[in-house]
Amino acid sequence: MAISQADPLMAGGAADEVPAGPDPGAELEAPYSTLESRRHQMFPQLNADEMERVRRFGTPQRWQAGERLFSVGQVGRGMYLVVTGRVKIVRRDGLGREHLITEQGPGHFLAEVGTLRGHPALVDGEALTDTEGYVIPPDRLRALLVAEAELGERIMRALILRRVGLIESGSGPVLVGHGTEPLLLALQAFLRRNGHPHTVVDMDADRDCSALVEYAQAPATDFPLVICPDGRVLRAPDEGQLASCLGLLPEFDPNHVYDVVVVGAGPAGLATAVYGASEGLSVAVIDCRSPGGQAGASARIENYLGFPTGISGQALAGRAFVQALKFGAHIAIPLEVKALHCGQDPIRLELADGRMIPTRTVVIATGAQYRRPGIEALEHFEGRGVYYWASPVEAKLCKDEPVMLVGGGNSAGQAAVYLASHAAHVHMLVRGPGLAATMSRYLIDRIGGLPNLTLHTHAAITSLDGDGWLSTVRYNARAESPAPISMPVRHLFLFIGADPNASWLRTCNVKVDDKGFVQTGGGDLGCAAAIPYPLQTSVPGVFAIGDVRSGSTKRVAAAVGEGAAVVAQIHSYLAGLPAMAAVAGARSA
Question: What integer pLDDT is reported at residue 376 of this predicted model?
Fold first, then answer.
């Protein structure tokens, strides 16, 4: 069967922590076979003292033999601690295939990372005997992790490894499609970047799969199909429909006023969430796609402090994501913010689905997106050979084929190095005379040592061609030829420049520079006395950090630093609100 599993690193581990996943298509002889050496960490048994410490956070429950504690797709009640009796854990996918994961007895707890958010269960839990235990709801579980540091560390590690195991084993929804359908690739990337277990079945390579016979004759417009764990079938769904089927769409209490709502779950936004929530602020983070932002697409970041062997952007984002959950941040993905209404008290964020989120402060951390060059027919080939990121999904598509990459920044360099380990050859195009002015030296040296990478300088693409899928790229390169050069290429990666994601701020009149990046601080805005906080925008209570901010340093470390700094400024701003209200009341009197 032509099956590919999701990337296990999103669950919070890193390449030096989590073993590599199984080869695509390989049958797993035993659940979590590649994590077998860490089984004691995945399923630790608590002693009597540790069980007593956990019980303080839960409520007692009883289950009869044969009774379900929880089922796949059922809204999660929290973590289950087994005191007496025995429970079996079974995983199953949308095709009805079941596999026993483990049996758990006294001292064992049942949960995984999604439990922290109250997400639907990814496995079935059934009592094998009459069983007694405790249920620790998500909010109390987060309190446990913080209050019991050493025990919390063991529990958190187990939760992460269990999610990794589910990703490796291909649990959850089954995506069925034909080869390289753009929507199939987009859905696969959405689930992978959100760390959700899934399986992909390529109908072109697996025409004889008996489990899919009833779908094989479906019209082409139905593909890709998504078979949800509860048996529902989605036909060519978008990301929102898929998230809804899996119970991932977050809820908001319309009466709760947050201290801060962060828009954007990149490094800057997640840093704000971690520091804000850990210091007692009520924090929500909203993102329309997945954690990590542009950094999440980086194959390997090697100059981030504290990771001498490097770390993938997705692994770094995954760790920060789980860390924010641990401290109680409400992370809402995927949700899109439509507008900011700042002429009200409290400030309100309007979502694309019409809901309003009230908050005392807002942090704009929406980052920037790679620019779409003015090339004719570019939109036609997006998802059909043209990409703006380089993940394992795209790397698999271009395996042993030549690819072209445009861009000279660090993200382009990281992508080029990563793709060179999969593609037959990488042709890298830059407008300037070289890479020295825009790229870190370690990446320049790495690229210079790649035998299957050619750097084309003073180069620019002029046109694209292909019948449905990209097949030819034409470009000018003064150093190579006075006439346009035509190259047969099926995969083109664009990492050129960046435009700010700030169009949703128009309703609030937040000031931006001539390129659309958000201005902050009195110096940039010419009104230092009126804006006391360096990261505040022209609108009181609205702050901006990271790549979306005018004048920011486009580095992950800088974004994280601004995420931490803005929390201190928010504390100061919030402390002044009662005094400001008292002054306003005295004046009106």
Answer: 87
Q: Report the alpha-carbon distance of residue 196 to residue 191 in Å, rounded.
A: 5
* pLDDT confidence of residue 479: 80
Using CA atoms, how far apart are residues 301 and 297, in angstroms rounded to an integer?
10
Domain with CATH 2.60.120.10 in the chain: 1-239
CA–CA distance, 276 with 365 (Å, rounded to integer)? 14
**Taking the CA of residue 395 as centre, how many other CA atoms within 13 Å lie in the half-sphere pointing to its CB?**
17
- pLDDT per residue as tens digits for the range 201-221: 888 776 555 556 566 667 878
Please list, in sequence order, all residues whose beta carbon lies within 8 angstroms of the beta carbon of residue 356, skipping any fewer than 6 positions away. Answer: 254, 341, 348, 349, 350
Q: Say if residue 145's pLDDT is above 50.
A: yes
State in Å, rounded, how far the first CA of the chain is from the last one.
76
Q: Which residues pair with 186 in a beta bridge?
A: none
DSSP 21: P
Q: What's the pLDDT band for 587 if we cut at 50, 70, 90?
A: very low
Q: Is the dihedral of CA 177, 124, 246, 264 positive or negative?
A: negative
Phi (first) and psi of residue 396, to 5 degrees: -65, -35
Topology adopted by domain 258-370+501-588: FAD/NAD(P)-binding domain (3.50.50)
Question: What pLDDT digit, counting tens, does each position of 367-394 carry?
Answer: 998 888 889 889 999 989 999 989 888 8
Residue 147's identity, in one-letter code, is: A
Residue 447 in 3-state DSSP? helix
* pLDDT tens-digit series, residues 3-58: 333 443 334 333 333 333 333 222 223 334 457 788 899 999 999 999 999 999 99
CATH no., domain 1-239: 2.60.120.10
* Residue 329: burial class (beta carbons within 10 Å; 0-12, 13-18, 19+): buried
Residues 352/338, Cβ–Cβ less than 8 Å? yes
**Using an 8 Å Cβ cutoff, are 528 and 558 in contact?**
no
Measured between alpha carbons, how far is 134 from 86 in angstroms, rounded to an integer? 13
230 three-state secondary structure: coil
User: Cβ-count burial of 535 within 10 angstroms (0-12 exposed, 13-18 middle, 19+ buried)?
Assistant: buried
What percent of the chain shows pLDDT beyond 70? 88
Beta strands per DSSP E along 39-191: 59-63, 68-70, 79-84, 87-92, 98-104, 109-110, 124-127, 131-136, 174-177
List, in sequence order, every residue forming a beta bridge with 61; answer none if it has no partner. 133
List, by residue range, all CATH 3.50.50.60 domains of the chain. Answer: 258-370+501-588, 378-494
Q: Is the pTM of this model over 0.85?
A: yes
Q: How far is residue 64's CA from residue 132's CA, in Å, rounded to a whole number?
A: 9
Q: Which CATH superfamily is domain 378-494 in?
A: FAD/NAD(P)-binding domain (3.50.50.60)
DSSP string, 182-237: HHHHHHHHHHHHTT---EEEETTT-TT-GGGHHHHTS-GGGPSEEE-TTS-EEES-
